[in-house]
Structure formats: structure tokens, C-alpha cells
């Protein structure tokens, strides 16, 4: 009988369990009211006197082993549960991480920056809340100049000197004030104009303006730069320059690129002509150079400014400019495959 007890001790020691139910079954088998231990305790009185001592010790050892086993297994299972509670099931495969999409405005802006950086232009940025000097006066638009009406301006009510910039030409003024030629810089950013919101225009949009100032810069340099840009950007080099007027450039021109009329969006954005008006440009007026501390007898330069939104709309066939600022994920998700 003692040998049988020793076997049971070895069995109890070797026992292991995965669930609480298994531990409970084990406990009942050994320690329950009708369990093995009670059976053996009941046998005690039948054991020969000389064996009683050893029997007693062995049965106590079995009891201790079984009790310790139950406690140890319970502790082990509980600590596993705690880990699960905090971290979930650590063996599960991870949640897939959703990769976002770049906004079409950013995609096109980065393309433009990339194209100009290849010919030595750096990127300059400035504040969206501007003062009158940087947005207007320094650009040859003194107070009461009628051309101020060309750009319906949002003023900050309490101070007529402070406004939301109407173009990023203000950044070029800041750049010229702080840097001497040679200057080759482009200024991307958001601009604001007090216009009625429709499918074609918004009260804010995005521009990239460029400025090149050095000795002997000519209109031919400007035209070559534009030709390079449109070829890189649109894969098309058919452009036309229409004479125009800007207070800060003389002579001035507007640039159209021939895009074609393949889709309804092409019709809508090019107003049925196939030509997209992409930018204004011209030779920087000497007054502007002087206003910004650059000697106009020594240096000349050209400037240009284009709207990103309309280019993005054409390239990505977006029929309504308002989609660009509504942040509807169903729209934004469509650009996942773009740059
Ligand atoms: N600043 C002008 C605009 O906002 C664009 C422009 C820039 C025109 C530089 C000529 C030269 O419309």
C-alpha cells in the first residue's frame, strides 16, 4: 500500500494542466471528500502497527504534494490570464496598419518642387497672415492702386495693415529682403481670396511662385524655364504666352499649356478650349527689386506664379475644386497609389 502511495505521489508531482477545470478534477480526485486521500486515511486503522509511522508520513506527503500542486497550477493559470487580460492574445497575428494617402495638392506640389529643384531652385516659405508691405506695397502696389482690386483681400478686421496673403509673392519679397542675388527660389503655400465658392473657385487655394534673379536674366530665360517645366510636368511642351498685366512684373504674360479635350473634366476645366491657363509671369519690375534692397541696375530677374489646385484637378481628373478641401476619405483614399 505504501508503494501505491509513492506511485500516487510521483503521479501528482508530474501532473500538469492547461485549464482550471483540469486542476479542479485533479483536486477532487486527490483531495475531495470522496477522494483518494480520504480513502487512504480511512485505511489507516487497518495498517499494521509497525507500518503506521511510515504510512502516516507517506500519506501526509501525498496530501502536501497534491495541495501544493493545486496551488501552483492555479497560480500559473491565473498569471497567464492576467497577461491575456492586459495584452489580449499575444499569439494572434497583428492588426494590419492602414497606410494613408497623400493629398492630391501635396502630390502635385511635391512634383513641382522636384522639377524646379533639378534646375537649382530652393524652397522658401513664409507666413499666411501677412502685412500690407509684403503682400502689396513692396510689390509695386501702393495704397489706392487700382490693381489691388484684382485680388479680393481678406483683411484682419481690427488692423487694416494685416491680411491673409493673396499670393505667395509675399514670400519672394521676404526672400529678397534677406538674400542677395543670385536668387533661385520657389515658394509653395496656401493663399486666400474673398471669392464666392463654386465648383471652379474657392476662397483659398494653393500656389507655387518662382523667382530668379541674377545678372543679365532675360525673357528668353523665362520662356526656356517655362518650356522645361511644362514638358516635365505635363509631358507637353506646347505653350503660349499671352501679354498681360501685373504691377510687379514688366513685361508680363499669362501662360497657357495645351492639354487637350479628351474627357468631360478637360472640357470643364479648360472651358472647352483645351488650353489650361496655368500661370502668370514676367520680368521683375525694377521698382520691386529696389523696394527689396536689390540694385536694379546690376540685376534683373523673372518671376512666375501658378495655382496648384487647377493643375491637380486636371492631372487627377477632379471635377470640383471643393472636393480638395472637404476631406472626405472616400475621395482621399483614391490617391493611395499616387506618389
Ligand atoms: N502673384 C500673381 C498672382 O497671384 C502671379 C504672378 C507671380 C504673376 C509672379 C507674375 C509674376 O496671381
TrEMBL record:
The keyword Aminoacyl-tRNA synthetase applies. Residues 56-83 form a coiled coil. GO terms for biological process: phenylalanyl-tRNA aminoacylation. PROSITE patterns: AA_TRNA_LIGASE_II (PS50862). Binds 2 magnesium ions per tetramer. Keywords: Aminoacyl-tRNA synthetase, ATP-binding, Coiled coil, Cytoplasm, Ligase, Magnesium, Metal-binding, Nucleotide-binding, Protein biosynthesis. Residues 108-334 form the Aminoacyl-transfer RNA synthetases class-II family profile domain. InterPro entries: aa-tRNA-synth_II, aa-tRNA-synth_II/BPL/LPL, Phe-tRNA-synth_IIc_asu, Phe-tRNA_ligase_II_N, Phe_tRNA_ligase_alpha1_bac, Phenylalanyl-tRNA_Synthase, tRNA-bd_arm. It is found in: Cytoplasm. It comes from the Bacteria. Gene3D superfamilies: Bira Bifunctional Protein, Domain 2 (3.30.930.10). It is an enzyme of class 6 (ligase). Its main location: cytoplasm. GO terms for cellular component: cytoplasm. Its cofactor is Mg(2+). Mg(2+) binds at residue 250. Signal peptide: none annotated. PANTHER family: PHENYLALANINE--TRNA LIGASE, MITOCHONDRIAL, PHENYLALANYL-TRNA SYNTHETASE. Belongs to the class-II aminoacyl-tRNA synthetase family. Phe-tRNA synthetase alpha subunit type 1 subfamily. Tetramer of two alpha and two beta subunits. This is Phenylalanine--tRNA ligase alpha subunit. It comes from Seonamhaeicola marinus.
Amino acid at each position: 500500500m505504501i508503494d501505491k502511495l509513492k506511485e500516487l505521489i510521483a503521479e501528482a508531482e508530474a501532473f500538469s494542466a492547461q485549464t482550471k477545470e483540469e486542476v479542479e478534477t485533479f483536486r477532487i480526485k486527490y483531495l475531495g471528500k470522496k477522494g483518494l486521500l480520504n480513502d487512504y486515511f480511512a485505511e489507516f486503522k487497518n495498517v499494521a502497527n509497525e507500518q503506521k509511522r511510515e504510512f502516516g508520513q507517506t500519506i501526509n506527503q501525498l496530501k502536501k504534494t497534491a495541495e501544493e500542486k493545486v496551488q501552483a497550477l492555479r497560480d500559473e493559470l491565473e498569471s497567464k490570464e492576467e497577461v491575456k487580460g492586459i495584452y489580449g492574445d499575444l499569439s494572434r497575428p497583428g492588426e494590419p496598419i492602414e497606410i494613408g494617402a497623400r493629398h492630391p495638392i501635396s502630390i502635385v506640389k511635391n512634383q513641382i518642387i522636384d522639377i524646379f529643384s533639378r534646375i537649382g531652385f530652393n524652397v522658401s516659405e513664409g507666413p499666411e497672415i501677412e502685412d500690407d508691405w509684403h503682400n502689396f506695397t513692396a510689390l509695386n502696389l501702393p495704397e489706392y492702386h487700382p490693381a489691388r482690386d484684382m485680388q479680393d483681400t481678406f483683411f484682419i478686421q481690427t488692423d487694416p495693415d494685416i491680411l491673409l496673403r493673396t499670393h505667395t509673392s509675399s514670400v519672394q519679397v521676404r526672400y529678397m529682403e534677406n538674400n542677395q542675388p543670385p536668387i533661385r527660389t520657389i515658394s509653395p503655400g496656401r493663399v486666400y481670396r474673398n471669392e464666392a465658392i463654386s465648383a471652379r473657385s474657392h476662397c483659398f487655394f494653393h500656389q507655387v511662385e518662382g523667382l530668379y534673379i541674377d545678372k543679365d536674366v532675360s525673357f528668353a530665360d523665362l520662356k526656356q524655364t517655362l518650356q522645361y517645366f511644362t514638358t516635365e510636368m505635363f509631358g507637353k511642351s506646347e505653350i503660349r504666352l499671352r501679354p498681360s498685366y501685373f504691377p510687379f512684373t514688366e513685361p508680363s504674360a499669362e501662360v497657357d499649356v495645351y492639354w487637350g479635350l479628351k474627357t468631360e473634366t478637360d472640357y470643364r476645366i479648360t472651358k472647352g478650349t483645351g488650353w489650361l491657363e496655368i500661370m502668370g509671369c514676367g520680368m521683375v519690375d525694377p521698382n520691386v527689386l529696389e523696394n527689396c534692397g536689390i540694385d536694379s541696375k546690376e540685376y534683373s530677374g523673372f518671376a512666375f506664379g501658378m495655382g496648384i489646385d487647377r493643375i491637380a484637378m486636371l492631372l487627377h481628373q477632379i471635377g470640383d475644386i471643393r472636393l480638395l478641401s472637404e476631406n472626405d476619405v472616400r475621395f482621399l483614399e483614391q490617391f493611395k497609389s499616387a506618389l
